[in-house]
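G., the chain you wanted modeled:
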Amino acid sequence: MERFAAESWGVVLVDHWPPGRRGRDLARLADRAELLVLHDSEDERCGYQLSAFPFVTHDDRTLPRTTVVSRSRALRL
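Predicted structure as tokens:
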């Protein structure tokens, strides 16, 4: 993970095992990616802290839910 957290990214998909690591890894990547796509965002085990992002967009049309977050860019689905 350190290698990825040291780079800058346009889009990052957060969907890895175990789910409990996702929230921590999201925090580490928050300032390194323009858009972060969160899989299973309804699952509390993931520990996503969405309040840390000014731009949050949910796709609630299906489960599992997908959420896109950003600190720099709004996105509409």
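Residues 2-70 form one domain.

Shout if anything looks off.
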